[in-house]
Amino acid sequence: MSDVRHFGAVGDGETDDTEAIRHAIKEGDGSLYFPMGTYRIDETIEIPLGSPAPFVIHGESGVSCVRMHGKGPAFRMVGHHEGTGAPASWTPAVKDRERLPSIRHLVIEGRHAEADGLELEGVAQPILEGLLVRYLRHGIRLVRRNRNVIISHCHVYHNTGVGIFLDGVNLHQINLVGNHVSYNRRGGIRIERSEIRNLQITGNDIEYNNARSHPMLEDVPTAEIYVDTTAPGASVNEVTIASNTIQATSSPEGANIRVLEKPGTERPPGLWAITGNVIGSQEVNVHITGGYGITLSGNTIYSATRRNLLVEHSRFINVTGNHFRRHTPAFGTGVRFEDSTDCLFASCQIHDESEEGQESGASLLEIDSCARLLVNGCQFSNGCPFGIAVHDSRTVRISHCLISEERTPPRGSAVRFSGTGGAHALLSTAMQGDLEIADGISVQRDSID
After folding, report:
1. What is the DSSP letter of 176?
2. What CA–CA distance (Å, rounded) separates 338 from 62?
3. Secondary structure (DSSP) of 386-400
4. Is 301 helix (H, G, I), strand (E, B) or coil?
5. How many beta carbons lie within 10 A of that of residue 216, not counting itself?
6. pLDDT value of position 319
7. Residues 24/7, Cβ–Cβ less than 8 Å
8. Phi, psi of 196 (to 5 degrees)
């Protein structure tokens, strides 16, 4: 191993070790080792892959720290992969001399307002493991083109920008597994201007990623997981978000999961599964705009200042088997579909345990300006003003639901159809509370009261 101390690094936290580390990269054996110590660098350490062999950086867990005092990334790893994930597209040089570059068991800290942690470009099969990345601007940033990325068992913590930033990158196959991504001001995991396929976010703790933990800096709209594909050429497909805790403090225009797609493209967004997560405590817990083909199932989604789930301008959104609730009196609950078509809301529970009703005045399920929406087998309790409110919509079918009101005296009614529209159905649904149907709206009924 190329011990950086053998190339002149001091590791006392005060001496600039930049040139010593560069010397170790240039003259070493491709395995860069940081023993116990704090290594100050004032400029980016660039790691050009491919010469002479694959490259690995590793330290001693918890006791090896690289502290960046300049602007830009502490480490910038640059490869030459221009192909896809298919083995036939890999050049011999990438396949033999650049595969599996790794950075493990290191603390990376910032001491400059524009210091970043790690930046990867053109890299194939990198592994980032067991890192603590903190006090920086962006923690881990992927740009231009990368393939087959694994980020696991890392703490990406208390950075002023984004924790894990997929920024203008063409990237297929990325796994984010078992990480703690928290207290990052501009988002925990953020994707912008990128083309992404095969993204797995599994088993992570992703929390408090907004400006509340950075009171001296301006607030910006953000989310624990923020995906924006509105830029030309951007798209994010084939996504699994599973078995995470995704929680926060409420922030202006904030969300736990924010998906901002552009509808009407030749290749529509979709192939998303968001399942088995605990999601809560934001302005909107899950906010989907322009979505297509997204399944949201088996989640516990709680406590929002606006909505647990807000779906806008979307199509083929499948919401099944979720539990929606408010957790404290300061928050609310509820689901809203707006200007959306061909959606399913089934086997879900929404309940409000408060006596006074929600401060927002929102009903438990709101359907506004929608068409062809099915509500089946759901349980709604203590809605105020309504359990289900349908407005300016067509072909909304509500069946086999239970709408209850447990408060004395009652605070809300069961169902309202208002505005324009029609061709609705309310079938085999037990209701406590009033049913309101505006003049001119047709509703097929065989409800059981």
Report:
1. E
2. 48
3. EEEEEEEEEEEEEES
4. strand
5. 6
6. 98
7. yes
8. -120, 135
Q: What is the pLDDT of residue 411?
A: 74
pLDDT at residue 90 in the model: 86
Residue 376's DSSP bridge partners are 346, 399
User: What pLDDT sits at residue 310?
Assistant: 98
Residues 324-359 pLDDT 10s: 998 887 888 999 999 999 999 999 999 987 766 666
Identify the H or E element spanning 24: helix 18-27
Report the distance separating Cα 364 and Cα 322, nearest Å.
14
Cα–Cα distance, 165 to 138 (Å, whole number): 7
Tokens linked to 130: 């067991």
Please give the Cα distance from 430 to 403 (Å, whole number).
Answer: 6
In one-letter notation, the amino acid at residue 330 is A
Give the DSSP H or E segment for 169: strand 164-177
Structure tokens at 139: 């923690």
Positions of the chain with pLDDT under 50: none
Contacts of 92 (CB under 8 A, 6+ apart): none
Tokens of 416: 């309202």
For 338, the token pair is 């707006």
- Calpha distance 128→73 (Å, rounded): 15
Amino acid at 125: Q
Q: Identify the CA nearest to 449 among candidates 436, 426, 432, 437.
A: 432
pLDDT tens digit sequence for 137-173: 999 999 999 999 999 999 999 999 999 999 999 999 9
